Description:
By secondary structure, the protein is mainly alpha-helical. It has helices at about 5-20, 25-60, 70-80, 85-95, 100-125, 150-160, 185, 200-204. Helix 1 crosses helix 2.
Amino acid sequence: MAFGADELRVLRRALAAALHPVPLVDEDVRECLRLADSLDEAVREAGRLRDFLVADLARYRAALPGSAVGYLELLQEALAAGHEPVTDDLAALRALRGNPVAAAVLRRCLALSEQSMRARLAQQPVPAPAVRVPAPASAPRRARLMALPGGRASDEQKGKPQPQQPQRPKPAPSHPDEKPVPKPSEVFPPRRKPTPPPEQRAAG
């Protein structure tokens, strides 16, 4: 895309205003806007031309090898318009490798493909390396504390009422009808001392 003298003057003024901000007159603002519109239209026109060349290029490629001369000329024109060679273009050029022009265009297409691949890889974010977090070590098992005699637990147990143990029932006699055996004191009562006569007690 080529700029005319007037367009270059407006572009230079716009760049100066961007570097050193100063108030612009209305005429300068209108010229900058016209230049921006012209650039947008030129970009759209280039896109339409490239689409037309790519569509025409596909027709020439389908007619190979008879259309080799027209295909090579059209491919170089499409490359100049910003066309990126595709896999079909590279395959067609390899088939025409015996042609010196085709070999030169193939080298150019391979270089453009490599540049395009590097640009796409540079735009992709690089994934951060995965960091493995070590698993936390298992905490050592704490030993169970044993209550020692005479400690606080024993004092608390002293204050608590001890549960009464149930009394064991007395063994029942083997023969319910049998009478109990009398004790010796019941069979032979103790002998009483004889009491002296009243006269003896008075004399004494």
